[in-house]
Amino acid sequence: MENTKKKAKKKDPLSRTPYTRRSDLEMAKIASEVQSGLLGIRSACLKYGLCRNTLKLYLIKSAMRNLGEPISKQKPLPTMNHEPKESVLKKEVQRLNTELEYAKLKLLSLETMIQEAEKHLQIKIKKKYGTKQSKG
To answer: Sign of torsion, CA 66 71 75 81?
Structure first.
C-alpha cells in the first residue's frame, strides 16, 4: 500500500530571501519597526525570515549604539498611523456606552423595586435629600 497522504509544507516566510545575511541598514529598519511598536518580535521574524535570537541580539546592539549618541543626533522614531489609536478609542467609547446603559437599567430597576416595596409595605424607604444617616 502506498501512502497517499502528503506532508503539509511549512509556511514560508513572507520575505523573498529568508535566512540571508542582512545589511545594517535593513536591520536598522526592522529594529525601528519593532521598537516603535508597529511589529512584534515574532511577526517581524516571520515577515523578514529572521531568527528570533538574531533579531533580539540586533535590538540590543542598536540600543547600545544609541546610548552613546546625544539625543539630538538619534534618529527619530517613525510616526505611527493614528488609525489603530482611533480604533482603540472607538472601542473604549463603545464599551463605556454599554456600561452606561447597564448602569441606567440597574438604577431604573432599583427605583422600581423601591417604589413597589413602598406600595406593598406602606412605609417610606427613600430618605429625603440631606438627611443624616442613623447610627447603628
So the answer is: positive
Q: What is the DSSP string of 67-87?
A: HHS-GGGSPPPPPPPHHHHHH
**Domain segments of the chain as ranges:** 24-73, 81-124
Q: Give the pLDDT confidence of 99-134 residue by residue, as tens digits.
A: 999 999 999 999 999 999 989 988 888 777 776 777
Q: How far apart are CA 125 and CA 84, in angstroms?
A: 49
How distant is the alpha carbon of residue 101 from its chain centre? 25
Q: How far apart are CA 31 and CA 34, in angstroms?
A: 5
Terminal CA-CA length for the chain? 86
Give the pLDDT confidence of 44-70 residue by residue, as tens digits: 888 888 888 888 888 888 877 777 666
Please state whether 19 falls in left (phi above 0), alpha (psi between -120 and 50) or beta: left
- The pLDDT value recorded for residue 87 is 81
Phi, psi angle pair for 100, to nearest 5°: -65, -45
H helical segments located in 2-81: 24-36, 41-48, 52-68
